[in-house]
Amino acid sequence: MNIPSNLKYSNDHEWVRVEDNNIAVVGITDFAQSQLGDIVFVDIQTEGETLSAGEVFGAIEAVKTVSDALMPVSGHIIEVNAELESAPESVNKDPYGDGWMIKIEMSNPDELNNLLVAEQYQEIAQ
Fold this sequence. Notes:
This protein has four helices and nine strands, in the order βββαβββββααβα. By secondary structure, the chain is an alpha+beta fold.
Protein backbone atom coordinates (compact mmCIF):
# COMPACT_ATOMS: atom_id res chain seq x y z
CA MET A 1 0.00 0.00 0.00
CA ASN A 2 1.26 3.45 -0.94
CA ILE A 3 1.49 5.99 1.92
CA PRO A 4 3.67 8.92 0.79
CA SER A 5 5.72 10.45 3.60
CA ASN A 6 5.26 14.03 2.34
CA LEU A 7 1.51 14.07 3.10
CA LYS A 8 -0.63 14.38 6.22
CA TYR A 9 -3.53 12.01 6.85
CA SER A 10 -6.87 12.03 8.64
CA ASN A 11 -8.34 9.16 10.63
CA ASP A 12 -11.09 9.17 7.96
CA HIS A 13 -8.59 8.26 5.20
CA GLU A 14 -8.20 11.62 3.49
CA TRP A 15 -4.77 13.02 2.65
CA VAL A 16 -3.54 16.62 2.54
CA ARG A 17 -0.64 18.08 0.57
CA VAL A 18 0.21 21.66 1.48
CA GLU A 19 1.19 23.98 -1.35
CA ASP A 20 2.08 27.69 -1.24
CA ASN A 21 0.15 30.32 0.72
CA ASN A 22 -2.05 28.06 2.87
CA ILE A 23 -3.37 26.20 -0.18
CA ALA A 24 -3.86 22.46 0.34
CA VAL A 25 -4.78 19.66 -2.04
CA VAL A 26 -7.06 16.94 -0.63
CA GLY A 27 -7.97 13.43 -1.75
CA ILE A 28 -8.59 9.97 -0.38
CA THR A 29 -5.81 7.53 0.41
CA ASP A 30 -4.71 4.45 -1.47
CA PHE A 31 -6.11 2.39 1.41
CA ALA A 32 -9.51 4.12 1.16
CA GLN A 33 -9.82 3.63 -2.59
CA SER A 34 -8.87 -0.05 -2.23
CA GLN A 35 -11.57 -0.53 0.42
CA LEU A 36 -14.20 1.20 -1.71
CA GLY A 37 -13.43 -0.78 -4.86
CA ASP A 38 -14.10 0.50 -8.38
CA ILE A 39 -15.10 4.15 -8.12
CA VAL A 40 -17.78 5.08 -10.66
CA PHE A 41 -18.76 8.63 -9.61
CA VAL A 42 -17.34 11.47 -7.51
CA ASP A 43 -19.93 14.08 -6.48
CA ILE A 44 -18.52 17.33 -5.13
CA GLN A 45 -20.95 20.27 -5.05
CA THR A 46 -19.14 22.36 -2.43
CA GLU A 47 -16.83 24.52 -4.57
CA GLY A 48 -16.87 28.07 -3.18
CA GLU A 49 -18.00 26.96 0.28
CA THR A 50 -16.13 27.24 3.55
CA LEU A 51 -16.31 24.06 5.63
CA SER A 52 -14.91 22.97 8.98
CA ALA A 53 -12.67 19.99 9.58
CA GLY A 54 -14.80 16.85 9.70
CA GLU A 55 -17.60 18.22 7.51
CA VAL A 56 -18.65 16.40 4.33
CA PHE A 57 -17.30 18.01 1.15
CA GLY A 58 -18.51 15.35 -1.28
CA ALA A 59 -19.51 11.76 -1.95
CA ILE A 60 -17.62 8.93 -3.57
CA GLU A 61 -19.73 6.30 -5.28
CA ALA A 62 -18.22 2.89 -5.89
CA VAL A 63 -19.80 -0.19 -7.42
CA LYS A 64 -20.65 -1.60 -3.99
CA THR A 65 -21.06 1.47 -1.74
CA VAL A 66 -21.24 5.26 -1.35
CA SER A 67 -18.90 7.02 1.06
CA ASP A 68 -18.70 10.60 2.30
CA ALA A 69 -15.49 12.55 1.74
CA LEU A 70 -14.64 14.63 4.82
CA MET A 71 -12.62 17.81 5.21
CA PRO A 72 -9.33 16.99 6.97
CA VAL A 73 -8.82 20.67 7.85
CA SER A 74 -11.07 23.73 7.79
CA GLY A 75 -11.03 25.91 4.72
CA HIS A 76 -12.58 27.48 1.66
CA ILE A 77 -12.90 25.13 -1.33
CA ILE A 78 -11.31 27.01 -4.21
CA GLU A 79 -11.19 24.23 -6.82
CA VAL A 80 -12.71 20.84 -7.56
CA ASN A 81 -10.89 18.38 -9.80
CA ALA A 82 -13.12 18.61 -12.89
CA GLU A 83 -11.36 15.63 -14.49
CA LEU A 84 -13.08 13.32 -12.00
CA GLU A 85 -16.43 13.98 -13.67
CA SER A 86 -15.37 12.08 -16.79
CA ALA A 87 -12.68 9.89 -15.18
CA PRO A 88 -13.66 8.94 -11.60
CA GLU A 89 -11.45 5.86 -11.91
CA SER A 90 -8.47 8.23 -11.51
CA VAL A 91 -9.08 7.98 -7.78
CA ASN A 92 -8.41 4.23 -8.00
CA LYS A 93 -5.48 4.48 -10.41
CA ASP A 94 -3.66 7.49 -8.94
CA PRO A 95 -5.18 8.62 -5.62
CA TYR A 96 -2.26 10.94 -4.78
CA GLY A 97 -1.89 12.42 -8.28
CA ASP A 98 -4.58 12.68 -10.95
CA GLY A 99 -7.19 11.44 -8.44
CA TRP A 100 -6.97 14.48 -6.15
CA MET A 101 -10.41 15.88 -5.26
CA ILE A 102 -10.32 19.46 -4.00
CA LYS A 103 -8.02 22.40 -3.37
CA ILE A 104 -8.71 24.48 -0.30
CA GLU A 105 -7.48 27.69 1.21
CA MET A 106 -6.92 26.63 4.80
CA SER A 107 -8.55 28.87 7.37
CA ASN A 108 -6.51 27.43 10.24
CA PRO A 109 -3.21 25.82 9.11
CA ASP A 110 -2.53 24.83 12.74
CA GLU A 111 -5.14 22.08 12.25
CA LEU A 112 -2.49 20.22 10.25
CA ASN A 113 -0.94 19.38 13.63
CA ASN A 114 -4.04 17.27 14.39
CA LEU A 115 -3.41 15.04 11.37
CA LEU A 116 -1.28 11.92 11.15
CA VAL A 117 2.13 11.52 9.55
CA ALA A 118 2.69 8.54 7.23
CA GLU A 119 4.00 6.22 9.98
CA GLN A 120 0.98 6.94 12.19
CA TYR A 121 -1.45 6.48 9.32
CA GLN A 122 0.19 3.15 8.39
CA GLU A 123 -0.90 1.81 11.80
CA ILE A 124 -4.61 2.45 11.14
CA ALA A 125 -4.63 1.58 7.43
CA GLN A 126 -4.56 -2.19 7.68
